[in-house]
Every structure is written in structure tokens, then in C-alpha cells.
Amino acid sequence: MTTATVPPGAALAAPAVRPARPEEAPALARVLAAAFHDDPLTRWAFPDDAHRARILPAFFRVHVDQCLAHQGALTAQHPDDHGPVGALLFLPPGVWEHPGEQDQAAARALDAAVDADAHPESARRLAAITRLQARRHPRHRPHHYLAFVGAHPDARHTGTGTALLRAFLARVDHDGQAAYAETSSPGGARVCGAGGFTRFGEAIALPAGGPRLTPVWRGPR
User: Fold this and answer.
1) Across residues 7-21, what is the average pLDDT?
2) What is the bridge-based pairing of β-strands 178-183 and 143-151?
3) 16-218 — its CATH code?
4) DSSP-assigned states of every residue in 121-135
5) Comparing C-alpha atoms, which of 59, 41, 35 is closest to residue 209?
6) How far apart are CA 168 and CA 127, in angstroms?
């Protein structure tokens, strides 16, 4: 499994959060792949462990590139610059609702990233996630869409996710906007709850015994 560049035994001080740069895209994709390898959503979408480990870096690279194009990627790093230990991806108001050509290309790139021809069931499950998320996504209410936030397993319980979310919400509040997300794990729900998100309607139930996603909303501050 490809992991982020965190040396064994590295001191895990509080991370510094800043906007990510385009050249950091591969490292951000790797750290998100590590963060989400055992997430209930990715385990359901890509149940084969070897397949999941192989394709998640490419899967997240598509999302990283898409969000970077809209200045929607944050990185968390240690002061001694061991590399990213966490990342947050978001899309600003108007982008999710009105995707441009670049975003439509990202959707096509996802099919290639997950090796859809060789793993059709995973492709169908990923399409189901996207369809159900789109059905429930709030429309006609401007907001920042928080797509992913995660910390490398070696950096969990160090406040990395909270630091990333705090930086994201500072941008949201500066813009006078709302924020929306779907949480896929108890840890994600706790982080979002601490940031002022509240439940937004019923959970999204995925088919075939899949996990439930919890939509959450944070109004303008």
C-alpha cells in the first residue's frame, strides 16, 4: 500500500495548515489514500483490499487536481517539513452546481482511476454513491462543499483533522458562506460536529448493505 511520507517514529507536533500547491498533488493523494483505506465508504466501494490499495492514490489524485483547480485544497504539515500528514479538499460555491469542462473531465478520469473495466461492481457502487449524493445535495443554497478531510494513520489523534477543518471554516466564514458535507465515519462526524455542523436531513443509505452517509450543514456565520 502506498502511504504518505511520514518517517517511522517522527515527532507528531501540531501541524501547520496552508493552501496546497499544484506540485504537492501526488503527496496529497497518497496521504488521503492512506487516511481512507479503511473508511467504511471506500471499503464498500472497493471491497478487495489489494484493488483498493492500488487504486486509491489515483482515485484521490483526480479529486485533488479538481479541487486544486478551484483553490480548494489544504495541506497539513509538521514544522520540520516531513511532508503532508493530512489534507482537506473542497469546492467553492457554484462549482458543484455548475461544473465546467474541467470538472466533467474529472468525472471521466475517475472511471479510468478505479479500473472500471476490470472491476465493474466497484464502478457501479461508485456511481451509486455519486448519484445518491447528488440527489441529496442542497441546491439553490450557496455553500462550500467539503469533499474530503483526512489524516495519515500515523497522525491520527494529533488534532490534524480539527486543524484542517478550522482553516477551512475560516475561509468559509471570511466569504460569509455556508458549508455542506457528508460524513462516512464516527470520527468524521465528531470533527464536523465540533466545527458547528449539524445533521441535515435523513442519512443517505447505500444499497447492497452499504454504509450510511450523514449529511451535515453549517450556516453562514
Assistant:
1) 69
2) parallel
3) 3.40.630.30
4) HHHHHHHHHHHHHHH
5) 41
6) 27
What distance in Å separates the CA atoms of residue 56 and residue 38, rounded to the nearest whole number? 11
Closest CA to 213 of 137, 112, 99: 137
Instruction: With beta carbons less than 8 A apart as the criterion, state whether 172 and 178 touch.
Output: yes
The structure's pTM equals 0.89
Distance, in Å, from the CA atom of 191 to the CA atom of 128, rounded to the nearest integer, reads 26
What is the CB neighbour count within 10 angstroms for residue 184? Answer: 23
Q: Is 3 exposed, middle or buried (0-12, 13-18, 19+ CB in 10 A)?
A: middle
Q: How far apart are CA 62 and CA 109, in angstroms?
A: 7
User: DSSP code of 37?
Assistant: T
Instruction: For residue range 32-73, list pLDDT tens digits in order.
Output: 999 999 999 999 999 999 999 999 999 999 999 999 999 999
Q: What is the pLDDT of residues 117-160, one digit of tens each?
A: 778 899 899 889 989 998 999 988 899 999 999 999 988 888 89
Give the long-range contacts of residues 118-124, CB within 8 A, separation 24 or more. Answer: 119/46, 119/48, 119/51, 122/45, 122/46, 122/47, 122/48, 122/51
Give the residue among 133, 137, 110 at the shortest CA–CA distance from 122.
110
Cβ neighbours of residue 166 closer than 8 Å, sequence gap 6 or more: 17, 195
